[in-house]
DUF7587 domain-containing protein
Amino acid sequence: MNEVQSFADRLGRLSIADRNSTQQPQVTLTAAINDVNQAISILSRLLADDKDAINKGDAVEICSLRTKANELASIAHVFNDRAERSIIAQVISMGGLQKPDISKLLWHFDRHILAIAKRIVGESEDDANILWRIAEECYNEAINCSGKLDPDDYFNALEETYLELPYDRDFESAEYYEHENRLNVHEEYAEVRRRSTDLSEQLNGIRKTRVRKSWIRFWARALSRCPGGPTLFHPPARLIATPAEWSVKDIPRYLFRAFDSNSAGTSNCNVVASVMSMDPTSNGSRDDIFSLKDQDASDMLHRHLVKGCFWSSGSDNLMSWSSSLMFVIQYAIWRKCNSKPEVPKDVWICAVDTRKFPQGQFAKDKWLLHAYGNTKLDDQQKKFRELRLDMPQWDNGEYLSQGTLNHSGRSCVLSLRGLIGAGLCTLYPEFDFNHPDADVQARTQWPKRVLQLRQRWAYENSTTSEEVECAFKIANNCFGLFADSDIALLLLGFKNRKVLGTSLCQYKMYRIRSLLRNLWRFVDIFNWQELWHESSEVQVALGREE
């Protein structure tokens, strides 16, 4: 049998076209997909081996094959539409029971949700991540005030369908004119109408707020329940109206963490996952810490924050990050020099761009400590809280994630060895722990070493063009996914600097001068000791200014 006939026979046996099939639908669909795959494989091999093979077939056979191929294309189009609808239905089902308002919003935004699904399915290189990626995009569009799933679009469309109260101005009936006259003549009537209108607007505003929160919770719940999806920090209403510095919304642009083969949980080029998420028999890693009882949540939080660097409890669902690149670099050095029982070949640093993650992916440790400040604490926990909350010199900008965090495409993962090779120790010789004359604290200390360096670098240091060039080289070689000026600023921001020299590329020098000048202005306004370790937070503020 020739290849053309084999391809035609394979198409002719497609179970998907057998409307009288008595097999179970899923069995029929699976068999049909297998037949399609084999048919495509045959045709691909045929055309690859002999481009003129189609010319060797009988004319009737070729016409029949063409008809079947067109039918297959039509079926494929229908199947694509149904497959996308099926995927959307699965994502929506993750959100749980739909209240009337949610159902109406889903109907209103159906076109936009379908467009999101089509785009992500078309762009995806990993089908296993389809559901959570669609849910994450829908969540982002729902929580964004200008997003495609912003409830205001629904409310505006809804209000346009209402007749203006108490009567439609376009319907000039006798009752309408009577109402207008009474508004002009009777003050009491006008006052009653005004109060009624104010009350109606107030109630409408309350309803909008309630529906908006329900809509966002719906997508947050769907996202957290999708296989492989993130577990977001979604604080309850009692915590939302807290001071701005406790907010989960105001997260630094870049966060960093160091890890090696001995690190707790899972950390690699694609995923950072908690110890709890590694237990296949437990779904606890999908539970937001705010969904736990306050005491249980407090115990988990404090256990994580006070644990050692080479061990973690099986019930720990948190992973640590820092907004201070300097702190993470020194931690990587300390970990390289002090790992037990065996020294890893290298230590790695994962840097993430938080703008590419959904709101609630990260939360500041101090914000969570305040949230659970009224729970029962032991002496060690009380001492730690005092250290973290009342002694800013030991605050190194720690942030937390929970469960599984998929960072591929939104991060840079670099090795300590690569960072040094790119010129880190040229820019800052204090990090050269292998130098014969290196300070012993460079190897044996971590938070104390960072504090020592900050105090040493707190006085204004002159900065040459060569140092700026070195910072840009490190940024380009190690943080290729991120803006080089951002990373160069973070690196140069380890010291209190002024820029000297003009031999560097004009744009780079102007850019760095401008950023550093603004950086020190922020320091003057606030407190350098409190902002030193969080230069990335200053970068967030600079980004907003620009």
Remarks:
- Residues 15-19, 501-507, 519-546 have pLDDT under 50 and may be disordered.
